[in-house]
């Protein structure tokens, strides 16, 4: 991203991942844009990384459409409590669960807690992620590779494994991948690799679960204004975040959440193994 690009955001950084929405300026826009129409009435959804960013927008939109919500988050308690209040504002129940999706034992515990609270699980959204840019491949430590893969793709396997005993015909799994899976990223080699793995995982799992009537799809966002951005990049890069898209700006979480809703509800009853691309016009998807 060149320094000559137009400013899209105030320069800012956060010193820890996955970042905190409460510290962002401006705050991401998570508010659903339309009244609900009961497209998820009576359903229960578990959303990893559900405390902020895309996960928060998905949680609030699903709640507006009638779903009860369990959100999994690492340690951003203030953001998680804010999301819980937003879900409850929509008239639905919300369970918050703190822990590391890279731990298979935690994933089993999180699903068990959701089942204990709501009695069932209809939609699983794998969304938690981390990224650590490096200028050279030699700078990527084994520990970083392990950590990125453990959160971004191992966690998806673990959550699906934990959820499968509870998912019935008509259930949906939605995995968050990224535009970087299609166009790459010279500074995010390990992150991009995990996002490519998520695409293959999604397409393969869709084939595996089709006979059980469980649909599996993915969403590949472009540059979206979430806490991960100021927690990842230097202030000068944040300043022009999203300027290189055809729409010349970053997207907001509430511009991405409807893709998840579509894939979660019966509107997408004949869609499985597919990826949606809310990315500001990037032409690289396939």
Automatic annotation (TrEMBL):
Q: Where is this region: Disordered?
A: 1-43
One Pfam family named in its UniProt record:
adh_short_C2
Q: Which CDD domains match?
A: SDR_c1
List the biased-composition ranges (Basic and acidic residues).
Answer: 17-32
Q: Which UniProt keywords apply?
A: Oxidoreductase
Record's keyword annotation contains DNA-binding: no
> Looking at the keywords, is Oxidoreductase present?
yes
- A Gene Ontology MF term for this entry? glucose 1-dehydrogenase [NAD(P)+] activity
* Domain of life where this protein originates: Bacteria
* Bias (Polar residues) ranges: 1-15
Question: What's the top EC group for this one?
Answer: oxidoreductase
E.C. numbers? 1.1.1.47
Family classification = Belongs to the short-chain dehydrogenases/reductases (SDR) family.
Listed PANTHER family: NADPH-DEPENDENT ALDEHYDE REDUCTASE 1, CHLOROPLASTIC (PTHR48107:SF16), NADPH-DEPENDENT ALDEHYDE REDUCTASE-LIKE PROTEIN, CHLOROPLASTIC-RELATED (PTHR48107)
* NCBIfam families named in the record: PRK06701.1 (NF005214), PRK07231.1 (NF005559)
What's this protein's name?
Answer: Glucose 1-dehydrogenase
